[in-house]
Amino acid sequence: MNIQAPNFLSALSALQAIEDGSLSSEALVRACLERIAERDAAVQAFAHLDPDRAIRLAQEIDKGRGGGALRGLPFAAKDILDSADLPTAYGSSIYAGHRPGADAACIAMAREAGAVLLGKTATCEFATLTPCATRHPLDPSRTPGGSSSGSAAAVADGMVPVAFGSQTGASIIRPAAYCGVVGYKPSYGLINSSGLKHVSPSLDTIGVFTRTVADARYVVFGAAPEPALHAPRIAVCESGQWDSARPETVEALRAFTRGLERGGARVSTRRLPANLEAAAAMQIRLSAFEARHSLAHERMRYPDRLSPRLRERVDLEAGMSMAEYADLRRSMQAAQRDAENLFDDADVLLYPAADGEAEVGMETGSPRFGALWTFLHLPALSIPIGRGPAGLPLGAQLIGAPGRDLELLAAARFAEGLAIRD
Amino acid sequence: MNIQAPNFLSALSALQAIEDGSLSSEALVRACLERIAERDAAVQAFAHLDPDRAIRLAQEIDKGRGGGALRGLPFAAKDILDSADLPTAYGSSIYAGHRPGADAACIAMAREAGAVLLGKTATCEFATLTPCATRHPLDPSRTPGGSSSGSAAAVADGMVPVAFGSQTGASIIRPAAYCGVVGYKPSYGLINSSGLKHVSPSLDTIGVFTRTVADARYVVFGAAPEPALHAPRIAVCESGQWDSARPETVEALRAFTRGLERGGARVSTRRLPANLEAAAAMQIRLSAFEARHSLAHERMRYPDRLSPRLRERVDLEAGMSMAEYADLRRSMQAAQRDAENLFDDADVLLYPAADGEAEVGMETGSPRFGALWTFLHLPALSIPIGRGPAGLPLGAQLIGAPGRDLELLAAARFAEGLAIRD
């Protein structure tokens, strides 16, 4: 494959080329669509695509109509996000052909900035656990991870430079690690969630998949000044969860850590306190209780069209009372407060992004390495740090202090330059 | 009017009557519908109503099909909440006749518990400032308050015992005070917001209008045990905002406070710290920035169908960068943390619910007395405490500690018994 083709450019390079006139939005969109035409029968990253419409929108941009910071840039959006002129099915047969009344806020804002919505990417059923058809771009016998399966695969496979995803447990971090791309889950609520089909409103967080950290930063923050961070303080966060990381993950993280130290980072180690480690169990209870409410309509009207595992999940906390739920919410807030102490002498934490390489089969893998940080509302980001025994990508997760997304992104830029990437 | 008619019963009394067989759901629904038929040409509380469907649903409940804690109880929902089998227009001509794919979570959960959705109540445009047609039930020359105008008016006028509303500034507390009913805005996120058309996802909070505190408690928490609170500690929270309260409000709150003391409450006074008083200005900036994103689709596609004041609002913070927004979110979280200190030696705070009586004209009144507490994510509740010079209701607002909704409701039950009600 020709990785110098426009569809493999980073978002910032593509925007620069459009800006200086060496590339048109139409040419870029066509290159992406050709890649999709060539590859998507195997990868199945897209749930809905309307090539003619995307080309027409790009032509309008090229004619100078509208556009701002993302002028001419193609993007995709996970099919859990509403779109007014493309169907939105939330990964469920219940919503086949559904046409929402409005674009989700993140889609509309990207369009206002001049980006071209190429298509909607496949998602696990209601962004939970039951897989969609998407395959790993490098090995069709394997999962790309989930639930933002199509978004991760599309960016990894050169189909689109940017795709929105969402995370309730590890639905951005894990597929980014599996597919070898950057996955950025911002602080809870930073990207406006209007038009996201919620499954757990207290946890659901919109984020982006890109090929570089700089792209993720630019798509979310535009040209904001970068915080000075010459020698980031990176704390390797140890916990019992590391026992579930495969040897190649642990070894790759060790090598990455050595690279960070050689590169000038101040690396330390800290143990995740027991009360925070226990909070991961609260994420499961909270998300199950909220899914029962968020999907109450579908649960009652279409019980036979929910997958068995989703039916099981929405019934998991059927016995929890609202008073118990209120208690659980207070515990969540207390844990979020406690988590601040993790950053007393660290800018970011380093943690596994997934157990190991993408697994054989379509099961999307355990969310264990992402769920706690989602529950704590902390910004997190996965970057590729090498390959495992099957030749597939491994990721490292960096986690930022509460609301310190720009500092996380600065540390991730630093770290990205020191990671082994293929 | 016959206030012993079934449509004037409290929710708990109606449920008891249905349970013991002295009232059928159908009879109750018909009584509500008759009241609506008689009165709604003047009040205009309902945006969408389907009487035959409601009667049919009540008949099914009476036949014993399904139902739980709210078996047979009619309710209404603000038309900012999605409903699958009644139109949902969000108070905007853009969405005339719109049919969402699913019921909002709170509607679906109420239905699962056996409640009968009577209709959708009128809302200000996208639950913001531009009034809908609803009139004050006691004086058609006056506003019922907003943005949950129809929900407050319908409960006050005997059209329905319970109605869901939502609050981003003071959209539950103010209309409840104006209309002389109980308005309960829970802690942020307690009632699942799935299916709410968001205008400011970090603030939008679903709540309920009822005729008694016990009803509000039951609808949200069911039969949860009530915290023991024999002599609640109530702190009158003083602030510069009191200068905007009219003399009748200040006098009514003074009389109410004396009643609370006589009733055994331990009443103290505390000054709102300056940094928290200043946080009210952050609520305005945050909600304007988020509205710009949440309504991006409507803003771009239908600019001429937004009211001038909504267009102004969504442009108010057009210059705020995402980095500034991230800063603002951190300031919000810091203010939320500081607010905990307000409850060091108080169970609840006492504060005005509105400037005074409902004003002449259709302007819905200032949100000033609600906006800060919404921004702080604290649970709040308005109860009627008497009448003003025009003979219209005045309300008192009680504010609970973070996540302490059941304690707030217990204190409000205590206080309600000591308030002058007509």
List the defining traits of the structure above.
homodimer; 422 residues; alpha/beta; Amidase signature (AS) enzymes; 38% helix; 15% strand; globular; Glutamyl-tRNA(Gln) amidotransferase subunit A (chains A, B); AS_sf (chains A, B)
Assign the structural class of chain A, choosing from mainly alpha, mainly beta, alpha/beta, alpha+beta, or little secondary structure: alpha/beta
The two chains with the largest interface, and their residue counts, are: A-B, 52 and 52 residues
Give the total of beta strands of chain A: 11
- Low-confidence stretches of chain A are none
> Rough shape of chain A?
globular
What share of residues are in beta strands of chain A? 5-15%
> Can you identify the CATH class of the domain at 6-221 in chain A?
Alpha Beta
Number of helices of chain A: 14
What is the succession of H and E elements of chain A? HHEHEHEHEHEEHEHEHHHHEHEEH
Question: What is the fold-level CATH name, i.e. the topology of the domain at 6-221 in chain A?
Answer: Amidase signature (AS) enzymes
CATH superfamily of the domain at 6-221 in chain A: Amidase signature (AS) domain
Instruction: Report the CATH architecture of the domain at 6-221 in chain A.
Output: Alpha-Beta Complex
What distance lies between the first and last C-alpha atoms of chain A, to the nearest angstrom? 15 Å
Any idea what the radius of gyration of chain A is? 20 Å
How would you describe the oligomerization state of the chains in this entry?
homodimer
Biggest β-sheet description of chain A: 11 strands, mixed
